[in-house]
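Could you help me review a protein record that somebody else here produced? My question to you is simply how this chain folds and whether the tokens agree. Thanks in advance; the entry in question is below:
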Amino acid sequence: MKIWIKERFPIDYAKFIEITEKIFIKEPIPLHMKKWVLAMGTTPFILFPIQILTGILLAFYFIPSPEMAHESVRYITEEVRLGFWVRGFHHWGANLMIISIFLHMMRVFFTQSFRKPRELNWILGFTLLGLVMTISFTGYSLTYSQVSYWATTVGTNMMAEMPLIGNFLLELLRGGPDVTANTLTRFYTLHVWLLPLAITLLIVLHILILRLHGVSEPEGFKKGYYAFYPSHFHKIIIVTLFLLSFISLLSVALPPGIGEPADPLTTPLHIKPEWYFFPIFLFLKWVPLNIGLLIIGLAIMGIVFWPFLEPLLAKKEKHRTILNFIIGAVTIITLITFTLIQTYTH
């Protein structure tokens, strides 16, 4: 059998093993990554394949049509063997992926690992966060419950307020002026095909840039390296097992609900998006929509291009560190405060 395989794949296996050991097994990892809190960038990478696998299993039963979408979600949850568990895994995996990317970006920001020559990886990381939030939003909309239907309506309505291209984007996403069967089909296509492909490509590019530049070494930690295997490899295995156990527990203890079927003729009294949009949703309730969208757009642009703005705002290393701490702390406190306020108010 071994000879048969070698004849059909005539490659230099000794060279292949040597390259594999150099790239993976013996890859130098900075000593600071022995600290768990500084080595969690792998968590989203672990969660994404879980989302792909559970999404494929759900797609076996889900029917993307207004008449059958909600019923197929009910059928998966209540009648398919372990369907509630798979759906719960997909639901909580998506939430944890958003949280893990956000926490990873916090770590990168506070350790100033976004600085030259890693600016592009910061931009890629933020883009990944946006894409993961978008794919979670499209998945939430596919349940076609009363709450998700109207949250989709309100969320897409905001696009119409964008100058020049607002109405074009609105009709592109909805497939028309209103949320209809076309909208569900387009969201399903985005959720199952286009967004996973885009996320996969960006993850590959993100890792490629990381490997080219190496892991950044923040100040204040002991300098030096250790091999990827076995220490860091075992850490990844432990994190994977913990995530599988924790998500499984959440899926059983706090399974996602089904809700009432969507009714386009009845508007609920209180419409809320998913929790990761709470800060934006609350802010837009407090200020005029056009002004709010402008401020949010400028804030996002500032975060995305912060590696290039930081040197312009502060020249000295000490001042830049203080500025980063202030900006990061204010941003985190604001996001948490807004999320809590929106959680406990109508």
Q: What stands out?
A: The first helix runs from residue 2 to 8.
